[in-house]
Amino acid sequence: MPTTSTRGLDATAIARVAVFAALIAVLGLLGAFTVFGAVPITAQTLGVMLAGAILGPWLGAASVAVVLALVAAGLPLLAGGRGGIGVFVGPTAGYLAGWLAGVIVIGLIVRHRGRIPTPVRTVVGVLTGGILVIYLFGIPVQSLVMRLPLGETALSSLVFLPGDLIKAVIASVVVLTLVRAYPRAFRRETIADAAETEERDPVRV
Known about the structure:
With 205 residues, this protein is mostly helical. It has a single domain (4-190), classed as Arp2/3 complex 21 kDa subunit ARPC3. Helices cover 68% and strands 4% of the residues. It contains eight helices and two strands, in the order αββααααααα. The chain has a two-stranded antiparallel sheet with strand order 1-2. Helix 2 (44-55) packs antiparallel against helix 3 (57-72), helix 2 (44-55) packs parallel to helix 4 (93-110) and helix 4 packs antiparallel against helix 5 (119-146). 38% of the residues are buried.
């Protein structure tokens, strides 16, 4: 039978997932804005980057999954007020799948074995999961749905790279600032880890 502390950690984990799901949704409601005078970008991927880096791979993935489930149910939570099952068969469907894969990769790199983020792991994780992985999922699906050559689609997608790099920088700065200001935000993400710690040190709270 679970202890009170373990039940509390369950509630905390759920709350953390809900907070980051809300963050991702709110960043989508901001809509698109332009960088360098012409390139439109959205802030939603920033929320995905932060979820993976702060929550870790599995709670981060849960927060993204909550958002995607709500979108599938019809809530207009994606940038531009988009929602509904149709977005999962449209040109951007691969990018949405990439969010889920990307947040896991970010978490696995940045929070490697539950460790506190370091500058190198944070930057590498955010760039790899938050940009490379999402592009690897998004570009082929966009090419397939729009019936365009893969190379042409990849080349046209590079216009969004500067905006994504800006989001990666912002995410890295936020995470590393949070590490210094509030390291408790980077608690071990799984209840099993907490239970193991409690077993070794029962007086620790």
